[in-house]
Amino acid sequence: MIDLPWITLLSAALIVTVAYTVYGLTGFGAAIIAIPLLAHFFPLRFAVPMMLIFDLFAGFLLGLKNRKHLDKQELLRLLPFLLLGMAAGVTLLVQASERWLLLVLGTFVLSYASWSLQRKVAPAPVSPGWAMPAGVIGGAFTALYGTGGPIYMIYLARRLSDKTVMRATIGVLIFGTALIRLVLFTGSGFYLQRGLLPLAFALLPCALLGYLAGSHLHAHMPPQRAVQAVWLLLIVGSTSLLWRGLTMS
């Protein structure tokens, strides 16, 4: 049963559609776009598990479509550190206050969006040793907000020169972490929240529509140009999240 104001439903549908259009374009980024905006309408402990439902479907489509281009070595290198970070992230999601969760999310999204807009040079290669901080930090943010994709992307962009391989690898990585999060979130009782699953399945067509639109655009336009416009929106959204977190009692 979905008992929400129509403006909330319409806003959520638009946010999810835009977020997964960007996901279809780039292979990541849905959560970092959607969660800061959804947090104005829903508690984080509601929005994050709901977005996970969409990640499972979109990640399955992207990973299945491009799995032959997957770089297994980089996935296996990230895996143990990623699991460690996810365990820490779920613990914080269960125990930390909403205020601090909003402040951390707002700071992270504002920093990443600002950095992305200013970045102009091609990323320099890095050593495999960077898999440890990328996996731990990315895993923690994946469990907390579903926003680990940008952190994985920063690492993988400096390890994989082929964009097709990178897009396939990040897609399979997001799908794999979504499966792990499903187990962790189910065990933590997040899916027992009233109205969460009905709303998730009601919005699922928006996520799939956005993904298909983004996949179509991926073949016809530079993804970075479209994503830059989204970063501007995220700077506004993350700034408002910081204000909200600072003014919460």
In words, what does this structure look like?
It is built from 10 helices and no strands. α1 packs antiparallel against α2 and α1 runs parallel beside α9. The protein is globular, with a radius of gyration of 17 Å. It starts with 5 loop residues before the first helix and ends with a helix. The mean pLDDT is 84.
Q: How many DSSP-defined strands?
A: 0
By secondary-structure content and strand pairing, the structural class works out as mainly alpha
Q: Assign a percent range to the helix content.
A: over 70%
Global Rg: 17 Å
Integer count of domains: 1
Secondary-structure element sequence?
HHHHHHHHHH
In terms of topology, how is this protein built?
Elements: H1 6-26, H2 30-38, H3 44-66, H4 72-95, H5 98-118, H6 131-145, H7 149-156, H8 163-187, H9 196-218, H10 223-247
Helix pairs in contact: 1-2, 1-9, 2-3, 2-10, 3-8, 3-9, 4-6, 4-8, 5-10, 6-7, 7-8
Summarize the structure.
It is built from ten helices and no strands. The chain has 249 residues and is mainly α.
